[in-house]
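Here is one chain, start to finish.
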Amino acid sequence: MDMIAQARKAEILRKLHGGPPVLVLPNAWDAASACVLEELGYPAIASTSAGVAFALGYADGQRISRDEMLEVVARIARAVRVPVTADMESGYGTTLAHMAETAKRIVASGAVGLNLEDVTGETESSHVNTELQAEKIRTIREVSASLGVSLVINARTDIYLMPIGPEAMRFERTVERLRAYRAAGADCVFVPGLVDRGLIERLVKAVDAPLNILVSPGCPSIPELEALGVRRASIGSGVMRATLGLVRRIGKELLERGTYSSAFDGSIPYAEITELMTRAASNSAEKAHG
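Its structure:
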């Protein structure tokens, strides 16, 4: 592995958060989806932990193992030439030692960034103490930097997504956490579940860090988010779930009508995807041989 090239990609990804424009990331769940997005011109690829989990037969919520998640991340990183950032849920562990090992494994995968959540389960009781979460971020920063690749950390709070705590206190608690995460070394801060234009605008002003918003129904458009000062917009498992919706429509059409137009309308021609994946295999081979 060329650590100098990997470190360079980390800095490229870090600079992409400087905006404008907003860094748009329609998350990939395997090498093929990553290659299709890279071919469109996206300057970086982000994985979706939910999408990877679904594709491998798991429910979302850190039920997949770290090994299985990083195997997919590594395949994506080998297949594309642009920087790759991995959705690592809450780091696949609870201690600082776990975070140190996760940081080492991410660097070894070829990825140059990660998302890190501050909940470890499905209830509010799993919300990690702010100070401990900041220490986890600091550990990932220090360990990855010591390996020569300072990972781009996107620190996520689930206060709005879960949601956590009284509604009247969510904004202030979110600001407090994101400021602590930024001070600990986060490059970007992430608030999924927030779609209100006014709250997004207030949060951009309150937190001195690039803000990532999860695109979802009711959320402002990408140009509107950019005008509000948002620096990163991702779609999570949205693209993967839309693809599964297409699978269902194709299956339903075949089953109920005996036709198959939905299978071919808008599909990528076989020759084109074969050429694309042949190039991806060549990229992987080049990286494997240094």
